[in-house]
Amino acid sequence: MQFVDLAAQQALIREDLDRRIKRVLDHGQYIMGPEVAELEETLAEYVGVPHAISCSSGTDALILPLLARGIGPGDAVFTTPFTFMATAEVISLLGATPIFVDIEPDTFNIDPTQLQAAIQAVREGDASFYPVPQKILDQGLTPKAVIAVDLFGLPADYERIEPLCQAEGLMLIEDAAQSFGGAIGERRVGSFGDAAATSFFPAKPFGGYGDGGMVFTADAELAEVMRSLRVHGQGADRYDNVRIGLNARLDTLQAAVLLAKWSLFADEVALRQENAGRYTALIKEQLPQVVTPTLPARYVSGWAQYTLRFVQGRDQRKAALDAIGVPSAIYYPIPLSLQAAYAGLGYRPGSLPDAERIAEQVLSLPFGPYIQEVDQQQVIAALA
Ligand SMILES: *Cc1c(COP(=O)(O)O)cnc(C)c1O
Fold first, then answer.
1. Which atom of ligand 1 is nearest to the CA of 304?
2. In testing the pocket of ligand 1, which one of 199, 258, 307 has its CB within 8 Å of the most ligand atoms?
């Protein structure tokens, strides 16, 4: 059994993949070829926003909107500590400071009530509103943005976070690297906040065969600046540079691969819902003491991961699965606030108690649109 089965998908589209790759080899427009524009139009329409800007990774998709708004030294950007390093890394790379806000223990996503308190703590320089390390508060940072993450595929609580960011005058970025295909009611993932970033890393819900990403926005001005930043701050033409930018383009070959995979995507989103539902039913039957994923009403998860919570004994369960060759994974074992790279911020064990506790309880099971029912039964029987 594999943790994610990428081969089953390829078998379904191999001919179309070969044809599309050959077409790129024939036309030879390896940089910003027609497939790049076609993919951007296709995904913008799916998400329901006017602008989609493809780029070289999910990480660059997070950098572009921050860079476009000039976020840098002296600025505070609020985010969750329970995420992949890239979410906070982009803030630090630009010289701004990440302020970690604890999560809701049931959804694993940033808690809007604590977010509000953390913004106030930074504005007032007063840790009695929220336990931000004094070392950070002493810098007198200006709150500028929030990056909310849709962890494991479940959209964050945008119904509360969007109005909060509007009232506070903060830019909101949706980190949708794990949630493409998800929704809240009629609004698809990728349409929340001022800009949303997704990733095409192979194991993500809409993954390619290499690195890639996309930013979505309804803001035409922001879109134009991000398109320029993607190509070295280009102005009217290639040798007119109007700002400091990056080389952050998506390869034409990668866009061709993604277009071949697109024909399966809607079915795969449906299969992920079905397979997640099957795990939950099996667990409720055989392992009633284990906490299954929360799915608030009207929320559709992109189900990047199917993640359980063991209030006790997570590590023994994982060891037992390892011993019989059933793959599983811990996302994420260490909250970013306690990573060595962030030791300088002044966070301590106990600063963000929910994220720290949940990091010791979670276990992600083998999952994907093509996981077999017998494999799911075997995983749950092994755990039980
Ligand atoms: C994967 C991931 C990223 C980064 O995407 P890359 O394409 O690997 O750069 C950012 N945020 C989250 C939450 C991710 O899971």
1. 15
2. 199
Domain extents for the chain? 7-101+108-260, 264-383
What tens digit of pLDDT does each residue of 150-162 get? 999 999 999 999 9
| Beta bridge partner(s), residue 171 | 145
Q: Which atom of ligand 1 is nearest to the CA of 86?
A: 10
Q: How far is the CA of 83 from the centre of ligand 1 (A)?
A: 9
264-383: CATH architecture: Alpha-Beta Complex (3.90)
The pLDDT mean for the chain works out to 97
Burial 3-26 (b: 16+ CB within 10 A, else e): bbbeeebeebbeebbeebbeebee
pLDDT value at residue 237: 86
For the domain covering 7-101+108-260, report its CATH number. 3.40.640.10
Q: Tell me which amino acid residue 127 is.
A: A
Burial 73-86 (b: 16+ CB within 10 A, else e): eebbbbbbbbbbeb
Q: Which atom of ligand 1 is nearest to the CA of 83?
A: 13
| Phi, then psi, of 197 in degrees rounded to 5 | -115, 130
